[in-house]
Design brief:
Elements (H helix, E strand, L loop, with lengths): L3 E2 L7 E7 L11 E7 L5 E5 L2 E5 L10 E2 L2 E2 L7 H11 L5 E11 L1 H10 L1 H14 L5 E17 L2 E17 L5 E17 L8 H9 L1 E2 L1 H20 L3 H25 L3 H4 L1 H5 L2 H7 L2 E5 L5 E5 L4 E4 L5 E4 L18 E2 L5
Antiparallel strand pairs: 1-12, 2-3, 3-4, 4-11, 5-11, 6-7, 8-9, 9-10, 10-11, 13-14, 15-16, 15-17
Helix pairs in contact: 2-6, 3-6, 5-6
């Protein structure tokens, strides 16, 4: 099944792709790593969902299967993660990787925390239920920007990596992690020869803006998350199930916003030209305009039969005729209202 459509300039090379994970990674829907690269070392790289599990009393080699995910302890920073990954698997022709800078993206952090507000709320509920046991749960998400430099076949290249980092953990009363999960969502990189203005490169911006998930792929991933949720709930970790489900709900809506912040506001730069062609653009991107309970409108993917909104700016979309969000224990802390396309 095809997953995405992408603009690839003539003469540029596409590397990588999407893989089915091994059965031991049964909580990971797919593995994805795609690079579009020019002969002059400019390019863009997209990753899929990078999700890892760990516990303080478990010590395994990185990527050893652990509760359906690769085992990998959270690192102190995104830079430390990449240095560790480089140490384990340098990549063909890549040498001398070093971290130039790393920072939080406050605008992105604020955005994703708002989009995942329901998970902060469910964490509070979970902690009230856990209070008598002495255990606790924590959840947080943050937007990060990492700048690295390395040699690619002798040419010094700089890359800027953007990601939202999510962390969920259950802790014993002594602070030790009983079960933890951390995820790199919406991770993208733009790169070019060191010293060039690659973040404002028109070709790279065009490639990024062209990326679209195909309808059949999104529907399949939604269904996968529904099945994963049932497995996690069976293990008695309803809040982790909520995190997995909410990731599926929010990931696509976050994607455009992450890219917009990453690429210096390409969305706003193109807003004027887009405004005159709104219906054509929606058709190209297979998006439909819905009326929200607040009286505003929102453009969402066109291929879902069931679309819901809450009063917090979150949207839930699915094609499962037997799934009712308002009876789902991981989502029924608030009311979801079905919304319909505008006329």
């Amino acid at each position: 099944m095809a997953a995405h459509q992408l603009l690839v300039p003539e003469g540029w090379k596409v590397e990588g792709g999407i893989q089915v994970p091994p059965p031991s990674y049964n909580m990971i829907p797919y593995l994805s790593d795609v690079t579009i690269k020019a002969p002059d070392k400019r390019g863009v790289r997209f990753w899929g969902i990078n999700e890892y599990g760990y516990a303080d009393n478990v010590n395994l080699r990185p990527f050893t299967p652990y509760e359906g995910r690769p085992y990998f302890r959270p690192q102190r920073s995104l830079g430390d993660f990449w240095l560790h990954i480089f140490e384990l698997n340098p990549g063909e022709g890549i040498t001398q990787l070093k971290v130039v800078s790393e920072s939080e993206l406050p605008e992105l952090t604020e955005l994703v925390r708002k989009q995942l507000a329901s998970l902060y709320h469910s964490t509070e509920q979970e902690n009230r239920q856990l209070a008598m046991s002495g255990m606790s749960m924590e959840f947080d998400v943050q937007g990060r920007r990492l700048v690295v430099r390395y040699l690619d076949a002798g040419t010094e290249v700089e890359a800027t990596i953007f990601a939202t980092v999510r962390h969920t953990a259950y802790r014993y009363a002594n602070g030790q992690v009983k079960a933890g999960m951390w995820t790199l969502d919406n991770m993208y990189a733009a790169f070019g020869p060191a010293g060039t203005d690659y973040l404002n490169d028109p070709a790279l911006c065009a490639i990024v803006r062209s990326r679209q998930e195909l309808p059949e792929w999104q529907a399949a991933i939604q269904q996968t998350y529904l099945m994963m949720q049932q497995q996690i709930v069976a293990r008695g970790r309803a809040a982790m199930a909520a995190a997995a489900r909410q990731a599926a709900v929010s990931r696509q809506s976050q994607s455009e916003d992450v890219l917009d912040i990453s690429f210096n506001g390409w969305k706003s730069r193109n807003a004027m030209s887009d405004a005159g062609h709104a219906s054509d653009i929606n058709a190209i991107h297979e998006r439909t305009t819905y009326a929200t309970p607040a009286g505003t409108t929102v453009n969402l993917p066109s291929y879902y039969q069931n679309v819901y909104a809450d009063q917090q700016g979150n949207y839930l979309m699915h094609n499962d005729a037997n799934y009712e969000v308002n009876t789902d224990p991981t989502f029924n802390s608030r009311n979801w209202e079905r919304i319909t396309p505008t006329q």
